[in-house]
Amino acid sequence: MRSFVVRSVESALRRRGAASSNRRLFSSDSVPERKVAILGAAGGIGQPLALLMKLNPLVSNLALYDIAGTAGVAADVGHINTRAQVAGYVGEEQLGKALEGSDVVIIPAGVPRKPGMTRDDLFNINAGIVKSLCTAIAKYCPSAVVNMISNPVNSTVPIASEVFKKAGTYDEKKLFGVTTLDVVRAKTFYTGKAKVPLRECLQLIDVNVPVVGGHAGITILPLFSQATPAGNDLSTEDIKALTKRTQDGGTEVVEAKAGKGSATLSMAYAGAIFADACLKGLNGVPDIVECSFVQSSITELPFFASKVRLGKNGVVEVLGLGPLSDYEEEGLENLKPELKASIEKGIKFARDN
Ligand SMILES: NC(=O)c1ccc[n+]([C@@H]2O[C@H](COP(=O)([O-])OP(=O)(O)OC[C@H]3O[C@@H](n4cnc5c(N)ncnc54)[C@H](O)[C@@H]3O)[C@@H](O)[C@H]2O)c1
Ligand SMILES: O=C(O)C[C@H](O)C(=O)O
């Protein structure tokens, strides 16, 4: 499995023409030590994400933290014969140890949706969880890159920023809302619909669809006009249907799971891709670009998801939106009021509590 993962990553890099400088990163002698902490590691996302991070050759230490259940997950994952040393931490008194020395902290802690709920309905519970975890991050690993998965991402990222500002540790280049699942879905749905060459279809990694805005309903704005390879035969109706399916992707899974939670496996996959991109950036691998919800000035909103170039200190550059179709321009204007309200709600919560 490990060699499969390494081979896949290597061949992806080779296709990007960067193999010779990067291949060295996969020899265990030259790869820097990197500690990754997962907060909420015993949950539906946390467990498969722990597995995927254990398979990532860039990780040397993997800290699995939750309020219960991490001993079993750590013992289980820890038996896999890959590089990362795994340790489980449980309860608030062990949170500091879990975080100390972390380069990347991934947060999938919190409650998931049930059918009929919006992501914002999770705010009352998850806002407090995120706030207390970010308070600990500010204390124990203030320079870590933070990957926020807990919903509602449109509010939890602003909460995290306020907590870090209060603690005097805020670095806007190191705080990321994970929107990779929207990109993964957009790529999958697009590949199914667009008449792109079969070779590309089999290698989803070669299909690209930027997704901008935020991570809830209409705030999720896939830019199919910029998809590569171009799906020339797509009608306006096709684009509208693909956009709606991408925006409703989370709800599709929540309904299919019928009360047993939301996306976990595809989210773990998406979270592992994004964390891997952050690690590569930290390690100096050039030209790492992913979409993420970050502090931004590309619109009038203080946080916005767009393509972001990653580097040794987190965000190197927030990339612009590029040319939009009329349909996408309309989607952009329509999403702004909801996204603005969610951002302000998060900021207010963090300032008042
Ligand atoms: N960003 C995205 O694209 C995306 C995708 C899917 C799910 N999510 C969100 O991720 C979150 C987790 O989803 P899940 O399916 O893994 O839920 P889950 O209930 O299966 O797991 C959540 C875990 O968080 C733990 N937890 C609760 N409070 C904690 C605390 N204070 N400290 C540490 N751990 C704590 C729980 O014990 C549990 O193990 C939800 O908010 C969900 O909406 C986001
Ligand atoms: O939809 C959800 O509640 C979970 C997540 O945000 C998703 O997009 O799958």
UniProtKB/TrEMBL annotation:
PANTHER family tied to this protein: MALATE AND LACTATE DEHYDROGENASE, MALATE DEHYDROGENASE
Protein name in UniProt: Malate dehydrogenase
Source organism per UniProt: Musa troglodytarum (fe'i banana)
Signal sequence, renumbered to the chain: none
Entry annotation: catalytic residues: 215
A UniProt-annotated Pfam family: Ldh_1_N
Record-listed NAD(+) binding positions: 40-46, 66, 126, 149-151, 267
Family to which this protein belongs: Belongs to the LDH/MDH superfamily. MDH type 1 family.
Domain Lactate/malate dehydrogenase C-terminal: 179-349
Keyword vocabulary terms for this entry: NAD, Oxidoreductase, Tricarboxylic acid cycle
